[in-house]
From TrEMBL:
InterPro entries, per the entry: Smr_dom, Smr_dom_sf
Domain Smr positions: 103-190
Domain of life: Bacteria
SMART domains: SMR
Gene3D superfamilies, sorted: 3.30.1370.110
Pfam families recorded: Smr
Lineage of source species: Bacteria, Pseudomonadati, Pseudomonadota, Gammaproteobacteria, Lysobacterales
SUPFAM superfamilies: SMR domain-like (SSF160443)
Protein name: Smr domain protein
């Protein structure tokens, strides 16, 4: 629809009337205060560079200490807590204590083997088992996937390290030759403490 102009008033007069009507409709206007600038990004916290360096050095020393203790394919796994009598440990070494359950990790990927071992030991503890056998293999038949860069068996060293860190492991020793030899380990577990 074409706009029509009123013959009695000029074009700009309509704009002034509209502005006046608008101002009358909204009332008095006041200017808003200037908006504050957004806060500056916080300065980064100071980094404890010396502590980080000390921790890195400690980790490196720990890794080297572990590397010195790494086992080869034919090495026997052996560990005994002080509270376990030497006679009981000797029986374990000779294979006179029979395993109640067995876990075969042979051929498992490392992360899967770690999870399986944790779950197996937790299950053995909850079922109050006293002795279990873990087959880790010697790392010879699995190709490069089961040996580290120096040709050492990955699963065997993983099992050794994990068993040494557990409070419920009293002792362990590589199995007798008839039960897997240095490709398996027999583990003596502490009985759970009864609550009174």
């Amino acid at each position: 629809m074409p706009m029509t102009s009123h013959p009695d008033r000029p074009e700009d007069a309509g704009d002034d009337d509209d502005a006046a009507l608008f101002r009358a409709a909204i009332g008095e206007v006041r200017r808003l205060p200037e908006a504050a600038l957004p806060p500056a990004a916080p300065k980064p916290r100071p980094r404890p560079r010396m502590a980080e360096r000390d921790e890195a050095l400690a980790r490196e020393e720990f890794r080297h200490a572990l590397d010195e203790q790494l086992l080869e394919a034919g090495d026997a796994l052996s560990y005994r807590r002080d509270e376990l009598p030497p006679k009981v440990f000797a029986r374990l070494r000779r294979g006179e204590i029979s395993a109640q359950e067995e876990l075969d990790l042979h051929g498992s990927p490392v992360r899967e083997a770690e999870a399986l071992l944790r779950a197996f030991l937790n299950d053995a503890r909850s079922h109050e088992l006293g002795c279990v056998r873990i087959i880790h293999g010697k790392g010879r038949g699995g190709g490069n996937d089961f040996l580290d860069s120096r040709g050492l068996p990955v699963l065997k060293n993983l099992v050794d390290r994990m068993l040494r860190q557990r409070a419920d492991v009293l002792a362990f020793h590589s199995a007798p030759p008839a039960q897997g030899g240095t490709g398996a380990v027999v583990v003596l577990l502490a009985r759970p403490q009864r609550r009174r």
